[in-house]
Design brief:
single chain; Beta-Lactamase; 5-stranded antiparallel beta sheet; 5-stranded mixed beta sheet; kinase; Two-component system CitB family sensor kinase; transmembrane helix; transferase; Sig_transdc_His_kin_SpoOB
Amino acid sequence: MDAVRRGRRGQRRTGRAGEDSGADPLPTDENAAGAVRERGAAGQASVSRLLRPSLTGQLFIANVVLLTLAVVVTASVWTVHNYWELERQYERRALAVARSVATVPAIQQALASAEDPEPRVAPLAERLRAASDARYVVVMDTAGIRYSHPDPDEIGRRAANDPSPASEGQVWTGTQFGPAGWTLRAKVPVRSGTSEDGDVIGVVSVGIAVSEIEGAAVRAASVAAGAAVVVLVGGALGAWVISRRVRAKTHGLEPREITQLLEHREALLHAIREGVLAVTAEGEVELANQPARDMLGLDAHCVGRSLATLGLESGIHDILSGARSGNDQMAMVGSRILVCNRRDTGDGRAVVTMRDHTELMRLSDELDGARTVTRGLRAQSHEFTNRIHTVAGMLDLGSVEQARSYLTELSPSHDRAGSEITGRINDVALAALVMAKSAQASEQGLRLDLAPVTRIPAELGTDVREEVLLVVGNLLDNALEAAGAGGWVELLLLAHEGPQTPPLLEVRVSDSGPGIADAVADGLFAAGTSTKAASTAGGDDRSHRGMGLALVRHACARRGGWITVDTDGETAFTAYVPLAAAPPEDRTDALGSPEDTREGGEA
């Protein structure tokens, strides 16, 4: 027992020593099982790859198998046909030799004489056999007794095969077995005299060994087999090259992955609200999702058509064709404001994405109007605060009469400015906008006047008020910025209505600014056209530059109206907004061309 305990203590000490020395622990059953599972999984993956090769592997295997089948079938058919052709050639050769021997006069005379023909026939037949390279040339009588044979022992014996029908005067060819083995034979009758009607006095049999024919066929087949091997190797190399090109074209994707990618692309194109349009290097539409077709007014048959045949406006056409480059390009399509980005794919193709910012721009303009009103109210509040402080100071100094006089002078001027606007403009929202713009002008050192004939006798309808506010707000903003400090702006608002004409609102804004150059005026209402310096637009305003007048034009066009610009002398913009909505065909006509907006032309 003590020895057993000492042994166990020794084992424990040995184990601790092993741990202290950093020796690797023995593998556990769990580790071994994990390693076995990993090896099994790797083996299964290898087997799976072999049983399910990739697309390029399938193409390579299919091409090689088809090529092999084609080469094997072709080679087999050619080999059989070649053997038959060789057999016919040797048959004709044996028949020609037999006929030549049968017409030799010496042989005919020897067979016709009463003497034994063997001494004269055998040497001559042997010489003819050697000259013709036949297996044998046998001359016999009609009973089949041989007078010549390559084997002298066979001379004088009866032939192993029946000499008929040659002994009956007919020519016979075929394959038979005899002392020389399997031979292709030709048997020809020997007639007395030179006439074809002479009596049959013997038979000539010429044989060519079948092994000779087979050898020739094997030699031809070996050449064909070599050619087939070369074709197979070349075909396999070509199949490999094709499979590699297919793999490169498909970016290594398998059919299942290509299908998934196509499904995902279709789902993505139909799920997003942005328009996506792909253009080829030749300028043809390659792809267009539904939002893109809706934004551009295209039908479902636009794919495959050239951009020039789609009837697109010049702005969007330049973006799609690449004539205009840059990010977030603005374009007007009908009544829509589109923000477009074009990206080249590197092979001449391009993808254009489009976002409809029409509503966003309208909301932005409404927000600008609200900010204008807020700034006007802030300015008035600041002005009133200063006046209140002035009055309070007078009261603190005891100058009550001066304070009363100051207030008396101040009230009529303020009431007069406000009452003039509200008295001529009976629409509350429009009047508020004009008052805010007037306060803004005063804050900037400008003068905003109403034309003497300005009059809006009634409230505007809710459907037209937004368009009118947009038109007035944008035109006044542009005029105030163009006039500058110390300048003036005049606003004319006049409602026209007659028995033969629908109600129409005339909005005319003129200013004392430097004017507009004729070159700029021609395309002034196109999206992205601006007379402002690039340095004046920063931050978010830069994406909206050149859109104000385009929005004004389309606000008028939506109701069948138009806008003109007069650059002779002072700059004056005149917009005509029908107070009743125009039918769709009039709206389309009203859009017209942005270049046709000079004085005397309609936009």
